[in-house]
Amino acid sequence: MPWTGDVISEINNFLRERYDMSGVQALRVYRNPVLERVRKVASKEDLFLHAGGKGLAAVLQTGAPMNATVRTEAGDFPQPGKTKFERLVVREVQYAATTGITLEEQEEARQSEAGVASLLDIKLRDLKDDLRWRLQCAVRGDSTGRLGRIGAWNNASSLATLDNTAKNFGWDDVDMFLPGMEVDIFRPNAAGTSWSAVREGLVVGAVDKPNKQVTLVSGPNTAGSTTPAANDIIFLRGAVALAGTALVYRDMAGLLHLIDDGTRNWKFTGENANPPGSGSPRQDYFGIANRTTIPSLVSPVYSKWDGDAPGSWDLEDLLKPIRDIDSGFADGQVTAIYCHPDMAAAIARKAAAAHNATMTVNDGKVTGGYYTRQLNVEGRMVPIIPMSQGWPKHTVLGVDEDKLRLYMPQDINFVNPYTGESGNRQVFFGSPGQRNMTFEAWLRFVGQLVALRCDTSFRLEGLRTDE
Question: Does domain 144-250 match CATH 3.10.105?
Answer without folding.
Answer: no
